Protein backbone atom coordinates (compact mmCIF):
# COMPACT_ATOMS: atom_id res chain seq x y z
CA UNK A 1 0.00 0.00 0.00
CA UNK A 2 1.41 3.40 -0.97
CA UNK A 3 1.79 6.16 1.59
CA UNK A 4 -0.67 8.26 -0.45
CA UNK A 5 -3.40 5.64 -0.21
CA UNK A 6 -2.78 4.97 3.48
CA UNK A 7 -2.99 8.69 4.21
CA UNK A 8 -6.17 8.98 2.14
CA UNK A 9 -7.78 6.06 4.01
CA UNK A 10 -6.98 7.70 7.34
CA UNK A 11 -8.46 11.00 6.19
CA UNK A 12 -11.55 9.23 4.80
CA UNK A 13 -12.19 7.60 8.21
CA UNK A 14 -12.02 11.05 9.77
CA UNK A 15 -14.59 12.41 7.32
CA UNK A 16 -16.93 9.47 7.98
CA UNK A 17 -16.71 10.21 11.72
CA UNK A 18 -17.31 13.93 11.25
CA UNK A 19 -20.23 13.42 8.87
CA UNK A 20 -22.05 11.40 11.55
CA UNK A 21 -22.41 14.58 13.59
CA UNK A 22 -25.89 16.05 13.07
CA UNK A 23 -24.33 19.53 13.42
CA UNK A 24 -21.71 18.95 10.70
CA UNK A 25 -21.37 22.08 8.54
CA UNK A 26 -17.97 21.82 6.81
CA UNK A 27 -19.33 20.83 3.40
CA UNK A 28 -16.87 23.10 1.61
CA UNK A 29 -13.96 21.39 3.37
CA UNK A 30 -15.33 17.95 2.54
CA UNK A 31 -15.82 18.90 -1.11
CA UNK A 32 -12.31 20.34 -1.30
CA UNK A 33 -10.88 17.11 0.12
CA UNK A 34 -12.79 15.00 -2.40
CA UNK A 35 -11.48 17.13 -5.26
CA UNK A 36 -7.89 17.24 -3.96
CA UNK A 37 -7.02 13.82 -5.40
CA UNK A 38 -8.64 11.52 -7.97
CA UNK A 39 -8.47 8.63 -5.47
CA UNK A 40 -10.28 10.38 -2.60
CA UNK A 41 -13.86 9.83 -3.75
CA UNK A 42 -13.38 6.11 -4.34
CA UNK A 43 -11.63 5.56 -1.02
CA UNK A 44 -14.29 7.53 0.84
CA UNK A 45 -17.00 5.35 -0.73
CA UNK A 46 -15.12 2.20 0.36
CA UNK A 47 -14.72 3.40 3.95
CA UNK A 48 -18.32 4.61 4.19
CA UNK A 49 -19.61 1.29 2.83
CA UNK A 50 -17.47 -0.70 5.26
CA UNK A 51 -18.69 1.49 8.13
CA UNK A 52 -22.30 0.86 7.12
CA UNK A 53 -21.67 -2.89 6.84
CA UNK A 54 -20.24 -3.05 10.36
CA UNK A 55 -23.17 -1.07 11.69
CA UNK A 56 -25.66 -3.42 10.01
CA UNK A 57 -23.88 -6.51 11.34
CA UNK A 58 -23.90 -5.18 14.90
CA UNK A 59 -27.55 -4.16 14.62
CA UNK A 60 -28.42 -7.63 13.36
CA UNK A 61 -26.65 -9.24 16.32
CA UNK A 62 -28.29 -6.79 18.72
CA UNK A 63 -31.73 -7.70 17.37
CA UNK A 64 -31.01 -11.35 18.17
CA UNK A 65 -30.15 -10.62 21.84
CA UNK A 66 -33.01 -10.61 24.37
CA UNK A 67 -33.63 -7.16 25.78
CA UNK A 68 -32.89 -8.30 29.34
CA UNK A 69 -29.65 -10.15 28.42
CA UNK A 70 -26.99 -7.49 28.96
CA UNK A 71 -24.13 -9.99 29.07
CA UNK A 72 -24.70 -11.13 25.50
CA UNK A 73 -24.85 -7.67 23.96
CA UNK A 74 -22.14 -7.10 21.35
CA UNK A 75 -19.50 -4.43 21.93
CA UNK A 76 -20.37 -1.14 20.23
CA UNK A 77 -18.24 0.13 17.41
CA UNK A 78 -16.42 3.31 18.34
CA UNK A 79 -13.74 5.37 16.66
CA UNK A 80 -11.78 8.21 18.16
CA UNK A 81 -9.40 10.50 16.36
CA UNK A 82 -6.12 11.05 18.21
CA UNK A 83 -2.92 12.93 17.65
CA UNK A 84 -4.15 15.66 15.29
CA UNK A 85 -1.61 18.49 14.97
CA UNK A 86 -0.72 21.34 12.61
CA UNK A 87 2.53 19.56 11.78
CA UNK A 88 0.81 16.59 10.16
CA UNK A 89 -2.44 16.29 8.25
CA UNK A 90 -3.05 12.94 9.87
CA UNK A 91 -1.08 11.26 12.65
CA UNK A 92 -3.33 8.37 13.64
CA UNK A 93 -6.87 7.04 13.80
CA UNK A 94 -7.93 4.65 16.55
CA UNK A 95 -11.13 2.61 16.73
CA UNK A 96 -12.71 -0.56 18.02
CA UNK A 97 -13.94 -3.39 15.83
CA UNK A 98 -16.23 -6.13 17.11
CA UNK A 99 -15.04 -9.70 16.52
CA UNK A 100 -16.98 -12.93 16.69
CA UNK A 101 -19.55 -13.18 19.52
CA UNK A 102 -17.82 -13.81 22.86
CA UNK A 103 -14.58 -12.07 21.85
CA UNK A 104 -13.43 -8.68 23.06
CA UNK A 105 -13.40 -5.75 20.67
CA UNK A 106 -10.06 -4.85 19.14
CA UNK A 107 -8.90 -1.29 18.91
CA UNK A 108 -7.21 -0.13 15.73
CA UNK A 109 -4.40 2.36 15.27
CA UNK A 110 -3.26 3.53 11.85
CA UNK A 111 -0.07 5.56 11.56
CA UNK A 112 0.67 7.54 8.41
CA UNK A 113 4.06 7.12 6.75
CA UNK A 114 6.60 9.46 8.27
CA UNK A 115 4.86 9.46 11.67
CA UNK A 116 5.40 7.45 14.89
CA UNK A 117 2.97 6.43 17.62
CA UNK A 118 2.89 4.30 20.74
CA UNK A 119 0.24 2.36 22.64
CA UNK A 120 0.38 1.25 26.29
CA UNK A 121 -1.71 -1.76 27.33
CA UNK A 122 -3.37 -2.23 30.70
CA UNK A 123 -0.76 -4.80 31.84
CA UNK A 124 2.08 -2.36 31.20
CA UNK A 125 3.16 -3.82 27.86
CA UNK A 126 3.80 -1.24 25.15
CA UNK A 127 3.79 -1.14 21.36
CA UNK A 128 5.73 1.46 19.38
CA UNK A 129 4.53 1.88 15.79
CA UNK A 130 6.56 3.12 12.85
CA UNK A 131 5.03 4.98 9.91
CA UNK A 132 2.88 3.22 7.32
CA UNK A 133 1.49 0.85 9.94
CA UNK A 134 -1.92 -0.49 10.91
CA UNK A 135 -2.35 -2.49 14.12
CA UNK A 136 -5.32 -4.06 15.90
CA UNK A 137 -4.93 -4.81 19.60
CA UNK A 138 -6.73 -5.75 22.80
CA UNK A 139 -5.90 -3.05 25.33
CA UNK A 140 -6.97 -5.23 28.27
CA UNK A 141 -5.72 -8.53 26.89
CA UNK A 142 -2.47 -9.91 25.51
CA UNK A 143 -3.13 -9.98 21.80
CA UNK A 144 -2.28 -7.83 18.79
CA UNK A 145 -2.58 -8.19 15.01
CA UNK A 146 -0.14 -6.31 12.78
CA UNK A 147 -2.03 -5.76 9.54
CA UNK A 148 0.95 -4.14 7.81
CA UNK A 149 3.93 -2.02 8.66
CA UNK A 150 6.36 -2.16 11.59
CA UNK A 151 5.99 -2.31 15.37
CA UNK A 152 8.23 -2.81 18.39
CA UNK A 153 6.63 -4.87 21.18
CA UNK A 154 7.89 -4.55 24.77
CA UNK A 155 5.94 -7.21 26.63
CA UNK A 156 5.50 -7.68 30.39
CA UNK A 157 6.42 -11.20 31.53
CA UNK A 158 3.52 -13.56 32.28
CA UNK A 159 4.27 -17.28 31.95
CA UNK A 160 0.64 -18.30 32.42
CA UNK A 161 -0.66 -15.87 29.82
CA UNK A 162 1.82 -15.38 26.94
CA UNK A 163 1.45 -12.45 24.58
CA UNK A 164 0.30 -13.39 21.06
CA UNK A 165 0.95 -11.40 17.90
CA UNK A 166 -0.50 -12.22 14.49
CA UNK A 167 1.31 -10.85 11.44
CA UNK A 168 1.51 -11.82 7.76
CA UNK A 169 -0.77 -14.80 8.40
CA UNK A 170 1.51 -16.21 11.11
CA UNK A 171 1.49 -16.33 14.88
CA UNK A 172 4.18 -15.20 17.31
CA UNK A 173 4.14 -16.14 20.99
CA UNK A 174 6.28 -14.78 23.81
CA UNK A 175 6.22 -14.67 27.59
CA UNK A 176 8.06 -11.41 28.20
CA UNK A 177 10.48 -9.81 25.80
CA UNK A 178 11.17 -7.01 23.33
CA UNK A 179 10.96 -7.69 19.61
CA UNK A 180 10.42 -5.84 16.34
CA UNK A 181 7.99 -7.09 13.69
CA UNK A 182 7.62 -6.06 10.05
CA UNK A 183 4.70 -7.30 7.92
CA UNK A 184 4.80 -6.33 4.24
CA UNK A 185 3.14 -7.95 1.22
CA UNK A 186 2.87 -11.32 2.98
CA UNK A 187 6.49 -11.30 4.16
CA UNK A 188 7.34 -11.39 7.86
CA UNK A 189 10.47 -10.20 9.64
CA UNK A 190 10.98 -10.68 13.39
CA UNK A 191 14.02 -9.43 15.34
CA UNK A 192 14.47 -10.03 19.09
CA UNK A 193 16.39 -7.72 21.40
CA UNK A 194 15.37 -9.27 24.74
CA UNK A 195 13.88 -12.59 25.88
CA UNK A 196 12.47 -15.17 23.47
CA UNK A 197 9.81 -15.37 20.78
CA UNK A 198 8.42 -18.47 19.09
CA UNK A 199 7.17 -18.02 15.53
CA UNK A 200 4.41 -20.41 14.44
CA UNK A 201 4.45 -22.52 17.65
CA UNK A 202 1.96 -25.03 16.21
CA UNK A 203 4.04 -25.82 13.12
CA UNK A 204 7.60 -24.64 12.41
CA UNK A 205 8.12 -23.50 16.03
CA UNK A 206 11.01 -21.16 15.18
CA UNK A 207 12.45 -20.10 18.56
CA UNK A 208 14.32 -16.78 18.54
CA UNK A 209 16.34 -15.43 21.45
CA UNK A 210 17.96 -12.03 21.93
CA UNK A 211 20.32 -11.33 19.06
CA UNK A 212 18.42 -13.47 16.53
CA UNK A 213 16.06 -12.63 13.69
CA UNK A 214 14.14 -14.44 10.97
CA UNK A 215 12.74 -13.37 7.62
CA UNK A 216 9.90 -15.48 6.21
CA UNK A 217 8.80 -15.14 2.59
CA UNK A 218 6.48 -17.75 1.17
CA UNK A 219 7.58 -21.06 2.62
CA UNK A 220 11.20 -20.03 3.19
CA UNK A 221 12.50 -18.91 6.58
CA UNK A 222 16.00 -17.43 6.81
CA UNK A 223 17.52 -16.93 10.26
CA UNK A 224 20.27 -14.41 10.89
CA UNK A 225 22.30 -13.06 13.83
CA UNK A 226 21.75 -9.42 14.75
CA UNK A 227 23.03 -6.88 17.25
CA UNK A 228 20.31 -6.55 19.94
CA UNK A 229 20.96 -2.82 20.26
CA UNK A 230 20.16 -2.35 16.57
CA UNK A 231 16.64 -3.78 16.86
CA UNK A 232 14.07 -1.07 16.07
CA UNK A 233 16.88 1.41 15.50
CA UNK A 234 14.32 3.56 13.67
CA UNK A 235 13.31 4.81 17.12
CA UNK A 236 16.77 6.35 17.50
CA UNK A 237 16.63 7.94 14.05
CA UNK A 238 18.83 5.46 12.22
CA UNK A 239 18.46 2.35 10.07
CA UNK A 240 21.09 -0.39 10.39
CA UNK A 241 21.67 -3.05 7.72
CA UNK A 242 23.89 -6.05 7.16
CA UNK A 243 23.81 -7.50 3.63
CA UNK A 244 20.15 -6.49 3.29
CA UNK A 245 18.28 -6.58 -0.06
CA UNK A 246 17.77 -3.06 -1.36
CA UNK A 247 14.01 -3.50 -1.63
CA UNK A 248 13.79 -3.88 2.16
CA UNK A 249 15.90 -0.76 2.61
CA UNK A 250 13.52 1.12 0.31
CA UNK A 251 10.47 -0.08 2.27
CA UNK A 252 12.03 1.04 5.54
CA UNK A 253 12.86 4.45 4.11
CA UNK A 254 9.32 4.88 2.76
CA UNK A 255 7.83 4.11 6.19
CA UNK A 256 10.13 6.53 7.95
CA UNK A 257 10.19 9.38 5.43
CA UNK A 258 6.57 9.34 4.29
CA UNK A 259 7.35 9.13 0.57
CA UNK A 260 6.90 6.45 -2.09
CA UNK A 261 10.16 4.71 -3.03
CA UNK A 262 10.81 2.09 -5.69
CA UNK A 263 13.89 0.07 -6.66
CA UNK A 264 14.75 -0.04 -10.36
CA UNK A 265 15.11 -3.42 -12.05
CA UNK A 266 18.86 -2.96 -12.47
CA UNK A 267 19.21 -2.64 -8.67
CA UNK A 268 16.75 -5.36 -7.67
CA UNK A 269 19.49 -7.83 -6.67
CA UNK A 270 21.63 -5.25 -4.86
CA UNK A 271 22.33 -5.58 -1.15
CA UNK A 272 23.37 -2.96 1.37
CA UNK A 273 25.49 -2.97 4.53
CA UNK A 274 25.76 0.16 6.62
CA UNK A 275 23.86 2.71 8.69
CA UNK A 276 21.52 5.38 7.33
CA UNK A 277 20.96 8.37 9.60
CA UNK A 278 17.43 9.73 9.39
CA UNK A 279 16.41 13.30 10.08
CA UNK A 280 17.11 15.02 6.76
CA UNK A 281 14.39 15.79 4.23
CA UNK A 282 13.84 13.12 1.53
CA UNK A 283 15.23 15.35 -1.23
CA UNK A 284 18.48 15.59 0.73
CA UNK A 285 18.71 12.09 2.19
CA UNK A 286 17.65 9.89 -0.73
CA UNK A 287 20.29 11.08 -3.22
CA UNK A 288 22.87 10.28 -0.52
CA UNK A 289 21.38 6.80 -0.11
CA UNK A 290 21.56 6.34 -3.87
CA UNK A 291 25.28 7.07 -3.80
CA UNK A 292 25.78 4.77 -0.79
CA UNK A 293 24.41 1.82 -2.76
CA UNK A 294 26.53 2.62 -5.79
CA UNK A 295 23.89 4.36 -7.86
CA UNK A 296 21.51 7.29 -7.62
CA UNK A 297 18.00 8.21 -6.53
CA UNK A 298 15.70 10.22 -8.77
CA UNK A 299 12.23 11.63 -8.24
CA UNK A 300 9.48 11.70 -10.87
CA UNK A 301 5.73 12.23 -10.40
CA UNK A 302 6.06 12.08 -6.63
CA UNK A 303 7.85 8.71 -6.59
CA UNK A 304 11.53 8.19 -5.78
CA UNK A 305 13.44 5.49 -7.65
CA UNK A 306 16.77 4.06 -6.50
CA UNK A 307 18.80 2.74 -9.42
CA UNK A 308 22.25 1.59 -10.34
CA UNK A 309 24.50 3.73 -12.54
Secondary structure: elements and pairs:
Layout: H1 3-19, H2 27-36, H3 40-64, E1 78-82, E2 92-97, E3 106-111, E4 117-120, E5 126-129, E6 133-137, E7 143-154, E8 163-167, E9 170-174, E10 178-184, E11 187-194, E12 196-199, E13 206-209, E14 212-217, E15 220-225, E16 238-245, H4 246-257, E17 260-263, E18 271-277, H5 282-292, E19 295-300, E20 303-308
Parallel strand pairs: 7-8, 17-20
Antiparallel strand pairs: 1-2, 2-3, 3-6, 4-5, 5-7, 6-7, 7-10, 8-9, 9-12, 10-11, 11-14, 12-13, 14-15, 16-18, 19-20
Helix pairs in contact: 1-3
Care to give the gist of this entry?
GO terms for molecular function: sigma factor antagonist activity. This protein has 309 residues and is α+β, with helices and mostly antiparallel strands.
Describe what you observe in this structure.
Among the domains are: 115 residues, Jelly Rolls, CATH 2.60.120.1440; 72 residues, Phage tail protein beta-alpha-beta fold, CATH 3.55.50.30. Helix 1 packs across helix 3. It has a 15-stranded mixed β-sheet that branches. The relative contact order is 0.08. The chain contains five helices and 20 strands. Strand 10 and strand 11 form a beta hairpin. With 309 residues, it is α+β, with helices and mostly antiparallel strands. It starts with a helix and ends with a strand. About 16% of the residues have low confidence. One of its GO terms (molecular function) is sigma factor antagonist activity. This is Anti-FecI sigma factor, FecR.
